[in-house]
Prior knowledge:
Elements: H1 3-14, E1 18-22, H2 28-34, E2 43-48, H3 52-59, H4 63-69, H5 74-88, E3 92-98, E4 113-120, E5 123-130, H6 135-155
Parallel strand pairs: 1-2, 1-3
Antiparallel strand pairs: 3-4, 4-5
Amino acid sequence: MSVEVALGESLKANGWTLAVAETTTGGLISAKIVGVPGSSAYFERGVVAYSKESKVEMLGITEDQLSEFGAVSEETAVALAEGVRKLGGTTLGIAETGIAGPILGRSPKPLGSTYIAIATPDGTRCEEHVFSGNRDTIRQQIACRALELVLETIQL
């Protein structure tokens, strides 16, 4: 059974709902979720917040937070997960932010640096990863790990 199917079954069994905030993956996480028939029972929304402005306008992160911690940070991932959970009125909110390359940009972090956060009624936790490969491979790894994290959280 795929992670997406197991995730859907677990969400439905618990009566939980999910909202997703994506940056690096650009909608891949949401696409994997809605690829499962019946996902409308538990998937409330997916937000692609690629630009600084979209993070501020849609998800409630402040410009000060982004300036202080950077777009690719634990603090930003946590704020995005909490913001999308609040926006969607869902049980869970998952968010990711990272660097897929091939160009580093302004961040001193290495390519593949990623933070994935999950907001629950009991609080928010965040994982840090450094994925390897090309842009597409990194984006796929982020999406897969995000789904695994949601499933693990439900099964706790």
